[in-house]
């Protein structure tokens, strides 16, 4: 997620790498009058109005994510649980997002779904929504406050640490690497970088010659890497902490006639296709777009009186040479600049909420 652009715009009914191994059971709860979930209070009854406070709608990752939200709302409408979906777009501005969330509070929506444009700036308005009895579910880029109904995410620290360990193994603990980050100040980007640091500290033979912060889009990432290629004759690996960033890096190396180096990344279709095409030494994982759908489902379950977890941890799959073909086999179902995410359904969501 992103000030200039959040991440490019979701486990498993399929065999997609690791995430299908989740096994849980949804805890049953009491009726709305005795709701156990945080924030829920007042006389809120189905069908509910849900607000989707989007920080930025342009990147493909966000478009795909919004697609899972709208699809889940349509399913819940069929069940008589949701009436309306209110969508706002802050266009990358955290202050605008605060104003839009405040408008949702003033409209007395029943639930607010949010990816935070700032981990700290939204705390007051999010807490205010919670105090008003509105279900608040925060996913992907998280706020600092715990005054929410639930937070949903993969483990970004684990993401960074696992990527760094893979790089250490690929280079035998020695070499010159470039670190590619998403926008500074976005929790998912900052946390991935924090997760990588202890691994890098433990392997001083890996020299970080430079690192970047760019939008989660291939074009600016390619531009940034092109400049770094001109400035650095020797690069042994690219520790990229975002899928579109990795695609931009691979394209920059290719267009400059430089040999590809071990590169980490995400399930961005473009990166996975380039990985296969160039015979890249690669590693990736997945931030599923269906976290958005899960957030809507979680909010409605809470409003219905279910005791949902304060934090829902979604397992990280591993994409490597043994699993990449499973993802690429489904590539045609997703935009060329999109992310290949796994299938999802109510049964999966129920298992995740049973943690």
Automatic annotation (TrEMBL):
Return the GO cellular component terms, semicolon-separated. cell envelope
UniProt keyword annotation of Magnesium present:
no
Q: Which InterPro entries match?
A: Peripla_BP_I, SBP_2_dom
Which CDD domains has this protein been placed in? Answer: PBP1_ABC_sugar_binding-like (cd19996)
List all membrane-crossing ranges: none
Superkingdom of source: Bacteria
Sequence similarity? Belongs to the bacterial solute-binding protein 2 family.
State what protein this is by name: ABC transporter substrate-binding protein
